[in-house]
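Entry under discussion copied across for reference:
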Amino acid sequence: MGAALAAAGIATVIPNYALYPKARFPQFMRDAAAAVAFARAHAHEWGADPARLFLMGHSAGAHIAVLLALDQEYLHQVGGDARWLRGVVGLSGPYDFLPFTDAYLNDVFAPSSEFYRSQPINYVHANAPPMLLMHGLGDKRVSPNNTRSLAARLEAAGDDVSTRYFPGASHGDLAAAFSPLRKQPPVLPLVLEFVAAKSALPRGD
């Protein structure tokens, strides 16, 4: 994925983050926010423009990227806010997944009184960063209803959101499509089109 984006002229940072059971929510959100701040601070070293910063993630990564963009708490902790972001791309992401269907998630996001904080849909607000949300309709791991629900909420708030659904595509297909050996569904060209369009817009700050 990083090589495909870099070949298209996009400086790409792919951070790691602490995983369960060693870490629980919101530690991985803090890790991701720190990575965003690091990328922004070092962008010039890589020939990149810190004013044209996008987040993208697949599956759990999509959850983190979208929650970072919508819940201001985590970027505030590193001295920023959503105005740092030109846009967000979510691939096959869980955004509205209560009640949990996997028992371990009760521990990842404990205590139960805080479960609502794990749901990006609960933080939708007007003037959110532009979003491109894509999902495979054959996804058995994360229901496409997550994308449908979030997109509807963003649209109701007047936000800039685009969606693409791919018939028959499974959970992993949207990430695998970045491989030069598998160019379907056409995720990469849609991402590049989105980045180009939103990069040309005036900055929010």
Q: What stands out?
A: The chain has eight helices and four strands. Residues 34 and 78 are 6 Å apart (CA to CA). Residues 27-42 form the longest helix (16 residues). The two ends are 30 Å apart (CA to CA).
